[in-house]
Amino acid sequence: MGEDNGRVFSLVVREFDPSKDCEMVQNVERRCEVGPSGGLSIFTDLLGDPICRVRHSPAYLMLVAELVGEDKDKEIVGMIRGCIKTVACGKKLSRNGKNVTADDVTLKPLPVYTKLAYILGLRVSPFHRRMGIGLKLVQRVEEWFRENGAEYSYMATENDNQASVNLFVDKCGYAKFRTPTILVNPVYAHRVKLSSRVTVIHLSPSDSEALYRRRFSTTEFFPRDIDSVLSNRLSLGTFLAVPRGSVTAETWPGADHFLADPPESWAVLSVWNSKDVFTLEVKGVSLVKRMLAKTTRLVDRALPWMQLPSVPDIFRPFGVHFLYGLGGEGPLAAKFVKALCGHAHNLAKERGCGVVATEVSSREPLRLGIPHWKSLSCAEDLWCIKRLGEDYGDGSVGDWTKSPPGMSIFVDPREI
């Protein structure tokens, strides 16, 4: 029981009911997106589907916090979303023979998998904060995680979001874990010219899966159901960049043959169409900045041959293409990633998107090849993690929460 403006109420945390909760949930989202100072904010339009950001995960749940008054009036004042999947948390070496030693170059690294839960979309109405509602929502979704066998739970927040950090780290027992970088690039009015030294090949879902499993399955957070990700309707394809003349779409030998004798340098990435899931809109920007951005677009359209970068109209709803599964090998891999990002930019332009975004480890060497605008990007996002129980399937890794960061992470596009 509690009191809100003199009115006695009880708090009920229950599962989201799409048949009756959508309007009230959207009202809470709007109140949360606009900061108390009325300054710059990003509004997210979930296109009428509050579960859209977790819907494509193997298992998901959305909870709402509802105030019930003595007169039986009900008001939704908060919500939380969670999903569960199986991901790589480390690796071990296979030993297929009696005389195999740790120095044997034939040892093959194999992924160690764990069942991981993810919390996102925690919202509490600004008028009902500091009442313990966020804590109750987190505790209840963690109960569901444990009931469904999750071994770890993690969440992502802005590094300077002190309220979120205090809730999860100080009150819920999470530990600061990884600090990836979000890189965002605008989609210009002109097409990006690709290097003539690079060939881009559109891989089939089966070849994409084979390549990812062979080369990147031991990367932290790599989803065991990568096939489901690649075959999802929102995945626009996986693209491979190779030196011109080495292989073409017509001479493509298949992933296994390619990896058996790859070129010295190559790179790969996949594209996820977030535009069909949600749109974003920047609010609270001055008229001067709006006019400056509009001017860049006008010049870009009028003089496309100058290749002048323009600010997209982010002051109206715009879509996002998310780049995931970035990887590559060889001394020129970063340059090949740059070519793939150019290809992804042109794809986004054709499909009417405003920006192209990705998220990579702060130590990722390939980030040097990812075009981005610093003003739109986030140098240090924050991921926090918590171990949920005592029995785990990651014995060879130990406590994942205490492991040092690797060079790369795999960011699942189903959770952005």
Question: Which structural traits does this protein have?
Answer:
GNAT_dom; eight-stranded mixed sheet; six-stranded mixed sheet; alpha+beta; transferase; 16 strands; 416 residues; 2 domains
How is this fold's topology laid out?
Layout: E1 2-4, E2 7-15, H1 22-33, E3 41-45, E4 59-69, E5 74-94, E6 108-124, H2 133-147, E7 152-158, H3 162-171, E8 175-178, E9 181-186, E10 198-203, H4 205-216, H5 226-230, E11 235-243, H6 255-260, E12 266-273, E13 279-283, H7 287-302, E14 320-329, H8 333-350, E15 355-360, E16 381-387
Parallel strand pairs: 6-7, 14-15
Antiparallel strand pairs: 1-2, 2-4, 3-13, 4-5, 5-6, 7-16, 8-16, 9-15, 10-11, 11-12, 12-14
Average pLDDT, all residues: 89
Helix content: 10-25%
Please describe the biggest sheet, giving its number of strands, its sense, and whether it closes into a barrel: 8 strands, mixed
Q: What are the segments in which pLDDT stays under 50 over at least 5 consecutive residues?
A: 34-38
* Count of alpha/pi helices: 8
* CA-CA gap between termini: 35 Å
State which percent range the strand residues make up: 25-35%
Protein model, in words:
The chain has 416 residues and is α+β, with helices and mostly antiparallel strands. It folds into 2 domains: 2-175, 3-Layer(aba) Sandwich (Aminopeptidase); 181-379, no CATH class. Helices cover 23% and strands 32% of the residues. The chain contains 8 helices and 16 strands. An 8-stranded mixed sheet has the order 1-2-4-5-6-7-16-8, with helices on both faces. The protein has a 6-stranded mixed sheet with strand order 9-15-14-12-11-10, with helices on both faces. Mean pLDDT is 89; it is low at 34-38. Residues 11-193 form the N-acetyltransferase domain. It comes from Malus domestica (Apple). InterPro entries: Acyl_CoA_acyltransferase, GNAT_dom, Plant_NAT. Belongs to the acetyltransferase family.
